[in-house]
Amino acid sequence: MFESLSDRLSDVFGRLTKKGALTDSDVSEAMREVRLALLEADVALPVVKDFVAAVKEKAIGQDVVRSVTPGQMVIKIVHDHLVEVLGGTDSPDLDLNAAPPVPIMMVGLQGSGKTTTTGKIAYRLTHRDKKKVLMASLDTRRPAAQEQLKVLGEQAGVATLPIIAGQNPVDIARRALTAARLQGYDVVILDTAGRLHIDEALMQEIEAVKRETNPHEVMLVADSLTGQDAVTVAKQFHDRIGLTGIALTRVDGDGRGGAALSMRAVTGVPLKLMGLGEKLDALEVFHADRIANRILG
Ligand code: GDP
């Protein structure tokens, strides 16, 4: 097991107290521990560097040297800065503030939890917010994908667009929006196809769907356990498609939260939702505080 950052800093400052006065190099030693802990939490290196520099500046500015409990003070500075970089204490939710039917496009790699998250969002909007929701799978490459969403819809008590064989993703998206308009739906969630890796064909397909539907939210679904790969994926999707939010899945797993920090720092896209299990109700708004505590340990 990893030693937690809180324990490490206590160790560092425990030694320092015995030594007496705190010097510049003592603060540097504490920052080395912060740096190591972030790297162990799988935070991307450039993000770690910026983070440590910012925390060091804050620590020095607040005069840790003369603080009675320098360890606690540094831990608080690190914690507060983590929360800030992760998006602050106000949890953002999905933005549905547009004329209905509001299109939401879900993107992400295969296996990230995209279809499950689509179902969870639909379930929440339907049963908690009393919205009329239509889901449509645009995955025409995996034959079982459209069927999977249909089954999920039945479990969730949410309508899915009837499957018509042979249609391409843009055709399906257009049909979903038309059906939603005609049948008075509030929200249409489009579950785009995933791939094992990002490729040009996938990006072109998603771009075409985006042009056709002008989604109000473009949500990347990313697996928190994939660490730095999640960051690369987020950056590529954001550069090419333009994301409005990230849903982090498998937060119930034993990941250390580094992916969340890196994705936010690298893309600037807000983390809006987190998945905490396989069940339909295992979805919450993103809590920066909780992820910060997990990184701190
Ligand atoms: P997709 O290929 O991206 O559409 O992935 P799926 O939605 O089919 O999910 C892949 C697997 O991950 C399924 O077994 C889901 O039940 C599981 N899964 C999705 N989200 C979560 C989550 O937040 N926590 C856990 N533990 N499992 C999840």
Automatic annotation (TrEMBL):
GO terms for biological process: SRP-dependent cotranslational protein targeting to membrane. Keywords: Cytoplasm, GTP-binding, Hydrolase, Nucleotide-binding, Ribonucleoprotein, RNA-binding, Signal recognition particle. It catalyses: GTP + H2O = GDP + phosphate + H(+). It is an enzyme of class 3 (hydrolase). It comes from the Bacteria. Its EC number is 3.6.5.4. Residues 270-283 form the SRP54-type proteins GTP-binding domain. One of its GO terms (molecular function) is GTP binding. Its main location: membrane. Signal peptide: none annotated. It is found in: Cell inner membrane; Cytoplasm. GO terms for cellular component: plasma membrane; signal recognition particle. GTP binds at residues 108-115, 191-195, 249-252. It is a peripheral membrane protein. Composed of three domains: the N-terminal N domain, which is responsible for interactions with the ribosome, the central G domain, which binds GTP, and the C-terminal M domain, which binds the RNA and the signal sequence of the RNC. Part of the signal recognition particle protein translocation system, which is composed of SRP and FtsY. SRP is a ribonucleoprotein composed of Ffh and a 4.5S RNA molecule. Belongs to the GTP-binding SRP family. SRP54 subfamily. Involved in targeting and insertion of nascent membrane proteins into the cytoplasmic membrane. Binds to the hydrophobic signal sequence of the ribosome-nascent chain (RNC) as it emerges from the ribosomes. The SRP-RNC complex is then targeted to the cytoplasmic membrane where it interacts with the SRP receptor FtsY. Interaction with FtsY leads to the transfer of the RNC complex to the Sec translocase for insertion into the membrane, the hydrolysis of GTP by both Ffh and FtsY, and the dissociation of the SRP-FtsY complex into the individual components. This is Signal recognition particle protein. The lineage of its organism: Bacteria, Pseudomonadati, Pseudomonadota, Alphaproteobacteria, Rhodospirillales. The chain holds residues 1 to 297 of 471 of the full protein.
